[in-house]
Amino acid sequence: NEEGNAASWTMVSEENETAPLPSSFPTQLVSINDDQMLSLNPSAVEYLRSLPKPIYCITLAGVAREGKSTWLTMFLRWLDRKLGKGDTNQQFKISKGVITCTSGSWVWGTTELPNGAEGTLFLVDTQGLASGNQEGLNRLFTFSVLLSNVLVLNVLRQVNDDTLNKLGAVSALSRLVQGSVDVFPELLTLVRDFDLDITEDGFADNNEYLEDLLKPDGSTERDATRASIKSIFAKRSLISMEAPTKSEKAFLNSWNGDGDDAEPGLPPAGDFVESFEKSAELILEAALANPKRLGDTMLDGAMLADLAEEIVNNINEKPVDLHDALHSIFDGVCRRAAESARDQITASIEQVKSKLPMSTEELEAELRGIRMMASSNYDVKVKESGVPDGDPTVTTHMDDLERVLADKWDFITNENEKVILEIIQDKANEFETRLRETVDEIDMEDLGNYCTEHDEVQKQMAEEFGQAISFASQAMREKAMDKFISSSIDLRRRNLERARLKQIAEEQKRQKLMLMGAGILIVVAVGIDGDPFDELWALLQILWFLPILMVGMGVYVAMYQKLPPGTMEVYTTVQAYAGSIKEQVAAKPKESKEKPE
Questions:
Q1: CA proximity to 381, closest of 348, 337, 338
Q2: What is the pTM of this model?
């Protein structure tokens, strides 16, 4: 180790022995064995465990022989300049010929970050996708995707279908391997030697051009790969670089091979170097803005090492079946779209619940709107991700969403009915109380008049009650109205029965009083000594108030055009008692006034 360096590396030899390396040298982290399985370098893994957090992992990947290692070497030397170290000769291994020199994944790390930032910057150079057995390369690329927080896709001149297909396939494998934990990086597509004028095609910037490249075009296979890219890399952008001049190419070619004659630092300033520095700034800024996380957890070195081991184990256990991987990606897209739609349904149902009670028409209109919104949002998310229309996962998750909608529809309908019934019961109690209080104030001396007024009050309150529960369905209103009318009829019947019993009791009381008076008169009449009519006339003379009663009766008749209540009963009773008295007096034998001899 160099004195003062914050880190040390180890390199794996062909005999799998390790030798110490200064921190400024890249070393191999992952290799591909003869069985196309991935193998981690134990020494490199142990080094990972010592790294402080936060960790910023930048992976450069792409097709072989398109300058990935060259760009990373430029990045190392550009970073040294930013740190004030001047022009250094750090570099990743670069090949002279057509045979790629990068095997597996090679890494370089440092804890010296610009502007005094804390943590570890971690660069990963991967073997080119077009070199070697594709099964192992797909596993390697998948490993690099899942380990990084920024993935730089290195492309020469333009993004073509072949590049997108490779990225889409690996994206699908990544989804298949990672499961439900969100570990996917930001995607920065770095287009080298870019000479297209995208403004001529109407694109405002590079990112708009990239999104256009990812749009579905009707081809099932191409649309599937684009869908997997958009699903995995939610945050994505495109960066372009100028092509180097002939002299700049010569400068860069001096780095090939062992690097004994390598030029230090970067090529002289120019459009090429300026465009590189701009791309390097954007990539470093993206990495430092979003440290490597597992879900919501920021990783340190030990956690990153564990993650690397877990990824390799999962990748090696998974069969590299792109069809299953793409199906998994589409299933994930549709599942998340359905989950988002379900969340919207739940939130909308809660809003509707706060508006209850509602009429059946209003509620069904609200629910149809929710159904339309959820289905539309689901379709938009699925189509934006490029899932083919005929993929069975689209229908499967839409069917699940329809079942959720049906359950929510039944739930809110039952809740509405429950609230309506509670309100109807409260209103029924209120109007029945008002009806009882109102009819109790009606005079019940004339029962016919009482029945007429009761019916008028019943009709008026029934109309008011119907208006108060107009939000209910017709069947519920009719049922409630029938119950209200039935209660009113029962109330009238009870009041009439009570009035009849009261009249009978009063009649019986009057009859008892009259019988008592008649009895007294009979006793008096029987006990009179002499002519009873003389005595009765004397008694009537005492009853001076009878004329007053007669005058009062006349006034009553004049005012109400009828006899006072009970007059006919009194008349009949008095007539009966008078006749009885007369008979008893006539039957009593007269005493002789002659003196006995």
A1: 337
A2: 0.55
How many angstroms separate the CA atoms of 423 and 575, rounded? 62
Residues 172 and 225: their CA atoms lie apart, in Å, by: 8
In terms of phi and psi (left: phi > 0; alpha: psi -120 to 50; beta: otherwise), the region of 259 is left
What is the distance between the alpha carbons of residues 332 and 397, in angstroms, rounded to a whole number?
Answer: 10
Could you count the other beta carbons within 10 Å of the beta carbon of residue 231? 24
Is the separation of the CB atoms in 38 and 143 below 8 Å?
yes
pLDDT in tens, 339-357: 999 999 999 999 998 888 8
Q: What is the pLDDT of residue 87?
A: 86
Helix (H) or strand (E) holding 456: helix 447-468
* Sequential DSSP letters for 2-13: -TT-S-EEEEE-
Instruction: Give the model confidence (pLDDT) of 222-249 as tens digits.
Output: 777 777 778 778 889 999 999 999 998 8
Separation of alpha carbons 140 and 128, rounded Å? 10
> Of 485, 505, 355, 483, which is closest to residue 416 (Cα–Cα)?
355
CB 109 within 8 Å of CB 103? no
Instruction: Provide the β-strand partners of residue 12.
Output: 18
Query: Is residue 29 a contact partner of residue 301, using CB atoms and an 8 Å limit?
Result: no
- Helix and strand numbers (H, E) in the chain are 17, 12
Contact 33, 39 (CB under 8 A): yes
DSSP secondary structure letters along 58-120: EEEEESTTSSHHHHHHHHHHHHHHHTT--S------B-SSSS----SEEEEEES--GGG--SE
Peptide bond connecting 22 to the previous residue in cis, omega within 30 degrees of 0: no
Give dist(CA 152, CA 522) in Å, integer: 130
Chain centroid to CA 349: how far?
9
102 with 28: CB under 8 angstroms?
no
Number of Cβ within 10 Å of residue 8's Cβ equals 16
